[in-house]
Amino acid sequence: MSSVVRLLSSMVGEVCSIIEINNERRSKLRRGLQFIKREMEQVVSLMEDKNKECRGAVQETRIQQLQEFVYDFEDFVETLRDPPPYSKLLLVAMKMDPRTEQLKSIEHFKETISSLGQYFLKQSTESSQGQDPDQGAMSDPDEDADEEQLQSIGGPRSEIVELLKPSPGEEQKLRVISIVGCRGVGKTALARAVRNKYSSSDEFDCVAWVVASGCNKKKALLDKILESVLEDLARRAPDAENAPKEKSEGASTTKPNLQDILSQKRCLVFVDDVQQALVWKDTVDACRKNGSRSRIVVTTSVHSVATACSSGSYVYRMQFLSDDDSKSLFWRKVYGSETADPPDALVTGSESIFSKCGGLPRALTSVAKHLNMKGDTLESTHCIDVGQYLGKDYLLGTNNAESVFKEMRRTLMHCYDSLPDYDHRSCMLYLGIFPKGHQIKSKSLVRRLVAEGLVVDAASKCFEELIDRCIVEPVQICNNSVVAKRCQVHGVMLEYIVHKSVAKNVVTLIKGHEPVLKAASTEARTRRLSVQSSIKGRFDELDKHKAALRSLTMFKTEPTDLKMCKMLRILDLEGCHGVNQEGFLEGLSELLLLKYLNLRNTRINKLPTKVKKLQRLETLDIRDTDVKILPLDVIMLPKLAYLFGKFQLPEVPTKGKEAEKFYEFLKETSSLHTLAGFVTNKRQSPEHVILLARNLKKVKVWCNDTPADAPTWLLPDHPELASSSAAASDGPSARSQDYNCPWNKTEERLNNMDYIKLLKMRVTPLESVSITSSTICNEFLCSLEGPCTISSIKLRGILNCLPHSNKLRELGRIKKMQLFSTGLTIEDLSVLQFLRGLEYLKLVEHTDRFCDGALVVEKNGFESLKSLCIDAPKVPEMQFKEGSMRSLTSLYLLCPNSQKPSGVIDGISHLAKLSEVILHSSMQRAWEAVAKGHPNRPCVKRQPEPTANT
Q1: What Å distances lie between residue 800 and 781, 823, 824, 850, 871, CA to CA?
Q2: b or e along 134-150 (b: 16 or more beta carbons within 10 Å of the residue's beta carbon)?
Q3: Span 96-119, mean pLDDT?
Q4: What is the CA angle 36-41-44, rounded to 5?
Q5: DSSP conformation letters of 782-807
Q6: What pLDDT sits at residue 615?
Q7: pTM
């Protein structure tokens, strides 16, 4: 017995000791996590102090280190969520407690965050004292291109000259012409060509040139312009009239007033490289606009600045050189001869150069000057070498490339360094994921950025800024949003972004059979991987890095096993084959941290029920797949906000606890915002989702056009909605069976009154509706009543008629309307001018009947419309009366079969704010003359040709 007692006593002592060790480790782990949390909050507060913001190479390196720290720490915290397979006490006793290693990791994290915190604290202190610890910031470079960079400069110069001329019957008024385009495209060269034309002529009393770079203070640019104007006046007529006048003997001299000079004389002023709209506003506000025949020509690489300078009119957008002009300029610079005729070997070897330069004059000139230095030893291998290593070795300057690339590097570096903050620069580098020529879907990119946490609150604004600064080029321009629907990165800019993002370990790239492009540091973890047109096995080359992957994007590559990629947040397999192979989709269900999953165009035909394990999934895209029926488990994912496809929603139980649980989930838990879209009919009706999902704002639906099949649940909200909303949100008392929900009926289908009753119970009305169905479209339009909360309507199907004008006047909240193949004529559609709040209208028809009659817009018609798009075989007759379309800025005429415009459009001059006209690529040049005859001289563009990547 004594032996048993001693044994038991020893065991109790050991257990007590184990409990003490367990409590001590748990306490240390908690304290360590809390310490790191406090340190990170302090660092963030220092970084967000905008008044003490400081830039430079060291600053950016520290932010990059901080980001890597956050990624590592986030992955570490995720491992803490998983409970150990056995009792913690047992693991302690067996000396297998994972917290031993966890505490070591905590200590490492504490040291790292403390070090970073000390840096940001020091930086904040030095910045507040006026010191700049980082000397890496760049000033705006002057775009010192010469005229020879533009082989086809004659055409653009003639257009600017035409914009300088007064319009017929125009009163004397100061006019500002803006030349906008990406850096290196030749804006300055064009402006100089125009200046040279007038520098010695008598058409202007003064021709002045000013560089706006560095003029960030109020009136600094104004003083600079005045000084240049006075200098040129003195050069042309050195008399007393233009000299500064003295107030009195012994008093200080006073300079003439700029607005008086511009009003009394006809001056031509060039202001190069304006980058801030505020700087320009301070300048132009000081100039009298009326009573002046002077002209100001502004060059800028920022669209919003060009619009602000010219008030939306007289904006000339620079284009990249055509293939022929690019080759002519390039070989002229290579050989230094106007009659350059390169051998076939060089032509073949230089193909990648033209592909990457993409018609950018500065890039072509830089490469050509580099090859010119080879002299008679120039061979095709030299061209191939430059084309292959243009981004890394020459544009980033990692191999001490010749000085001929200096200006090109400065141009590209300025695009990056001049961005407002680290969020914008991260967004720019993120574009390195996408291959050349890929059309980036703007909204998808924004959702990716948010899911990764790179840009949390302003992802859309960051992308807008990249477009505004000509870093990203819009492709699909027929859209009334600030961000174009599809965009792409220009060739040489993409080269720079790819190698910059790789150098900073933002992206790792596997492309075809080329070597893996990854950060030079051997300690750098691969966070984002882009696999482009490669074979399946290449992905396995990064086995040791898979555990840290947060984002995986594959283009034209068959995916492989992803079971090691436990930390994936983003998985984009759009267009990949082999996704439907056995077991692959089930394996994706084990990636528990996934937030964004794109399976578009992957030929899958079914989603596994295991998808319910993806509790953090926010975006699921299964468009262009063979998935016909969506599992109920997908709808019940708690974080799912964006669901895309073309599927039937699943059958839902009508009674019992399972039904109650589902309806309660939709009302209280569901995050679903966009459901686009599903196929519906009476037998497969989605009213349980449409009417109860509280956060649902956007719906897209297809339906059979058989009258017996068409549901009528898509009706706008009614005034009774407010009074019924309280009853629908009172918790258990508002469950489906308690308010006699019509879908509890098991023997009869829903009728119209049941749907209307359900609709009145919706707490949050829809904002955007897209319908493909003639029957539903007609019933939907007939049911519209004001006030209507729906702001966006897209209808595709034959319409009998449109609501009466009096009814349309009440629907003031509809801002965007798109009508496809309605069968109505342009005259029938003219009633839409009574929609007071309508800002964007797109009409797409493919029959000649559409042009029957004429669109006559009366005074005050379409009073809020900003963009009108007509996509039809030919332009219909249109008449704009005085006082109509007072807000219209963009007119899209995408009509390939249109003949001469005479007599088709009447009163276009009445569109007071018209600033751009977009034409179909095949429309005759005579249509451009219609736009140029407008007093505003709106910018004329042509819709880009569609590409294979849609």
Answers
A1: 10, 8, 8, 14, 20
A2: beeeeebbebebeeebb
A3: 78
A4: 125
A5: HH--SS----EEEEES--S----HHH
A6: 95
A7: 0.84
